[in-house]
Design a protein that fits this description.
heterodimer; A: about 400 residues; alpha+beta; 2 domains; five-stranded antiparallel sheet; 12 helices; B: about 300 residues; mainly alpha; flat
């Protein structure tokens, strides 16, 4: 069956250009970005990374405290405080460690009352407010006949006993509570996150420099030098690295930022070196390298100008994945007491400090721990997304 | 063998490169005492002699006295702590294998269904959340708020749950992710389709044909997994106050107990190398194409 003449129509003039339609050319990075945008997890990760960085960088300027600023009077305060109105315009709060703090009605701490007496037999604390006695009876949880009242303590002032708080409000002085010497937990988490990020970023960059240089030289040189260099990498890879990071930290014994960056960088370049060598091996057979060599371009320039820019995708992925690894290793080291030490504090140090009091003040540990988890999640999502956006097997899609 | 020798050598010389000695404290000891101590621990011998002495000691599993815990030999401390750590570590490994691999298979077979998404979500969390966070959360929720288990020690069977859980976290998640992805890869292969087309049951295809090949990357990971559990034990034993070898190691690091540090590092390294060797053997059992003695890239 053939075609009839009226099976075909003439195009009207407005559609004359249809077949010449040209799609906008996408550069490698624009294409990657386009694919990355489609990946919801990756974008969530990217936003997470940006938010955490902003939090760590600019957060501290919005709090009222320095990260090492201590107010021992207000140590170990929780997130929520029960405010008792024991007289007109006199509001007090009793900390879990039975310290009495005079507060404003909204929960801002003013000053601490001195303890004037302690009656062990009757389970009472006495505090001194301008010569008058404030009595705290904490027998309610301890005596069976009072257990029905279901309160922890009562406050008696001028003969009146207060059992119900005036209100329970958030801690206005310390939004996330304070630690055992009265430092603001929120401020410390911000600084901790900043230190952790700094360490991770510089360690990753440092290992990037070593790894890329080493890998590129090995891949470019080929023959026996390549063989030798890669055997060295194999040997380094065959030992449990974390043990050696620990050893180095013990030996150097100077727990500054520089030491830990150096140590992490010195040990984690191996994977990067492998990756770069593999890339260089395949890329150096390409025609443009041959062309460059024909034009008399020297080897270092070929590596630097032609090979590395073309291997940038996988390198970037490896770098993004290196950061959470470094965050983890750093917090691990700090946690077992080998990382950053006072007065600086990373998130791992914060967790370590809070471990002793986990039963009583769990939030001091949970807050930095959650922060670490968030950081790791964000970077991992971003890295995963980047990897699938750059994966050559998926590039046809 | 070479690796072990190398590790011992590197560790030994690293430890001797430290400025000051094991006895430099904040309050300096009198010179005579330092001299006597040096004499006692043979620190005045030429370094090469010390090295050979140490190597001979190592070969006979005699790691020398602990500098800080006087009266204890390093190997005694290791033998004291290792069984406890090994018990927890073994439990962790068994759980990882018994849970991680089946979960990975199920997730691969139900790709892009709710069960798969759920497993992968949990696994991603498991890979990213550090073990001390898991341990801390566990203590807070189950020992603190709910009071179901003890917060520390190993007196009751239930006290094992927390440490094992914290230890398992990362590797379990990693193994199930690995199993899933390699299973997906294998299931796409032609020979699987051929097997199905020949009328073999789905069950038989999965367990006899697909699984064997899918497990190879998982077996490779077993070596690093042992290392992960080892280092995990430092943290977990610290958090749960378990008197295992990990806790001794962290303690010796904080005390600068050098013989103990060298001893346990070498011990860990040997353990690791042995595990890697075992993995190589396991390889050839699973996949006859890989033969021992040949390098497989």
């Amino acid at each position: 069956m053939g075609y009839q003449q009226n099976d075909f129509d003439f195009l009207d003039s407005s559609r004359k250009t249809d077949k010449e339609q040209i799609r906008e050319a996408l550069t490698y990075w624009a294409d990657t970005w386009r694919r990355l945008k489609k990946n919801k997890m990756a974008i969530a990760g990217l936003i997470g990374v940006i938010l955490i960085s902003l939090f760590a960088l600019f957060g501290p300027s919005f709090t009222d405290y320095e990260f090492a600023e201590q107010h021992t009077d207000f140590a170990n305060t929780p997130l929520r405080v029960e405010v008792y109105e024991i007289s007109t315009d006199l509001y007090v709060y009793l900390t879990p460690a039975y310290r009495m703090i005079v507060v404003e009605p909204d929960g801002t701490f003013l000053y601490r009352l001195d303890q004037s007496g302690f009656d062990f037999a009757n389970k009472q604390f006495h505090f001194d407010y301008e010569g008058e006695d404030v009595m705290v009876d904490y027998s309610y949880k301890l005596l069976d006949e009072l257990a029905d009242e279901n309160i922890d303590y009562s406050i008696t002032f001028r003969g009146v006993e207060y059992k119900v708080p005036y209100k329970v409000t958030s801690n206005k002085s310390y939004p996330l509570g304070s630690d055992n010497v009265g430092r603001d937990v929120l401020t410390r988490i911000m600084y901790g996150a900043r230190i952790s990020l700094e360490v991770a970023l510089f360690a990753a960059l440092f290992s990037l420099v070593i790894g890329v240089t080493y890998g590129a030289i090995a891949g470019m040189a080929g023959s026996w030098l390549d063989n030798l260099m890669m055997r060295i990498v194999d040997i380094i890879d065959s030992i449990p690295l974390l043990l050696y990071v620990i050893l180095i930290m013990v030996i150097i014994d100077n727990k500054g930022l520089g030491t830990i960056i150096l140590t992490l960088g010195l040990f984690y370049w191996v994977g990067m070196a492998r990756l770069v060598r593999g890339q260089v091996l395949s890329l150096k057979e390409q025609e443009y390298v041959l062309a460059a060599r024909m034009l008399g371009v020297s080897q270092p320039v070929i590596i630097w100008r032609h090979l590395i820019p073309n291997a940038m995708g996988p390198i970037l992925v490896a770098l993004t994945m290196m950061i959470p690894t470094a965050v983890f290793t750093e917090s691990f080291l700090s946690f077992i007491g080998l990382g950053i030490s006072a007065p600086l504090a990373s998130l791992g140090t914060l967790c370590n400090d809070a471990l002793d009091a986990i039963q009583t003040y769990p939030f001091q540990l949970l807050a930095p721990a959650l922060m670490i988890a968030l950081m790791m999640l964000a970077f991992n999502f971003l890295g995963d997304g980047l990897r699938s956006a750059l994966d050559p097997r998926l590039r046809k899609g | 063998m070479l690796t072990i020798l190398l590790i011992a050598t590197v560790t030994f010389f690293m430890m001797h490169a430290i400025p000051g000695g094991p006895f430099s404290r904040e309050r300096p000891l009198p010179d005579e005492i330092i001299a006597a101590l040096n004499e006692k621990y043979h620190l005045n011998d030429p370094i090469l002699k010390q090295y050979f002495d140490y190597m001979v000691g190592l070969a006979t599993f005699n790691l020398g006295p602990s500098f800080r815990r006087t009266g204890f030999e390093v190997e005694e401390l290791i033998l004291l702590g290792f069984p406890i750590s090994a018990k927890i570590g073994l439990m962790a490994i068994i759980i990882i294998i018994l849970v991680g691999i089946p979960v990975g298979i199920v997730s691969a077979l139900r790709q892009n269904k709710p069960a798969d998404y759920f497993v992968m979500f949990i696994a991603t969390l498991g890979v990213t959340i550090p073990s001390f966070v898991v341990a801390a959360l566990f203590i807070y929720i189950f020992a603190g708020v709910l009071q179901w288990v003890d917060a520390f020690g190993l007196e009751r069977p239930s006290s094992y749950i927390g440490p094992v859980l914290a230890l398992v976290g990362y590797s379990l998640a990693f193994v199930s992710r690995l199993t899933r992805s390699s299973m997906l890869e294998v299931m796409r292969q032609d020979y699987i389709r051929t097997a199905r087309a020949n009328g073999l049951s789905r069950f038989k295809v999965i367990y006899k044909h697909a699984l064997k090949n899918a497990l190879i990357p998982v077996v490779t990971y077993l070596g690093p997994m042992v290392a992960a559990i080892l280092t995990g034990s430092f943290v977990v034993e610290k958090v749960f106050t378990i008197p295992g070898i990990g806790k001794y190691f962290v303690q010796s690091v904080n005390d600068r107990d050098y013989t103990m540090i060298i001893g346990s590092t070498v011990f860990f390294a040997v353990l690791y190398v042995i595990m890697v060797l075992l993995v190589d053997v396991a390889y050839s059992l699973i996949d006859p194409r890989i033969r021992l003695g040949k390098k497989s890239e």
